[in-house]
User: Fold this.
Amino acid sequence: MDEAAPGDILAPDVEAAVVACLEILRQTPAAVVTDIDGTISAIAPTPAEAMVDPGAHAALALLRERLAAVAVVSGRAPQDGAAMVGLPELTYVGNHGLERIVAGVPWTHPVAAAMQPAIAAALAEIETAARAAADVPWLIVENKGVTGTIHYRLAPDPVAAVALLEPLARAATGRHDLRLTLGRMILEIRPLLAVNKGTAIRELAHDLGLRGIVFFGDDVTDVDAFRALREMRQAGEASTLRVGVLGPETSPAVLAEIDVSVSGVAACAATLLALAARLALTEDR
Assistant:
């Protein structure tokens, strides 16, 4: 087992995750990839209220100095993710792989860009229909350009809320040739493209020739990434580790696709900090 950094006393799940991460990151070039919401930022009542854990922020900056890449792969628009994390030297993949910012240069999938009017129209139809059918002051509709998210976390009865919203969303996405996916207290609208967090990580690995990849995620929208990493490992393409950041709303689909886990955002931040410290300690020897 690797030596802990001075004063490094970790919870058992964090210690196990750090040791497993170090094993993968020895396969250079290597990268740490993380989701944002529910992983390095606690789930907030509204998207605008979420904040990245200060420890995670510091750790990502330190890790970028020691690894080939540190990337943020999120359902948020990449500009929003970059503003939220506040580290311009990182790679930002947003809208589940449909957009990215690499070395400050933005890119949007051209087919997804052409679907923005359809995304906006579908979101408007869903919101109009929902407000006509019920009193929904809790409803938040977020247009992220090439995707859209319908939030119902503030609903007093989430089961009733999704029962109302899901049929409306399926009808609207069907009319506009879009895809509907479900996440943690959200419904997401995306173009009909075979693009997701898994394909985004595959592209990152290919572009950088990565041999070691550690990914931190928490939600069903991260399962595509978890599966891609498993497939890459099984095919001998890279050494990979899938770290689940668990909470009271963790889906069984997440539990089925992770290698190790830590309990919550604070534990994820502690893992990243300890990982950065031990990588630095190894370099100093």
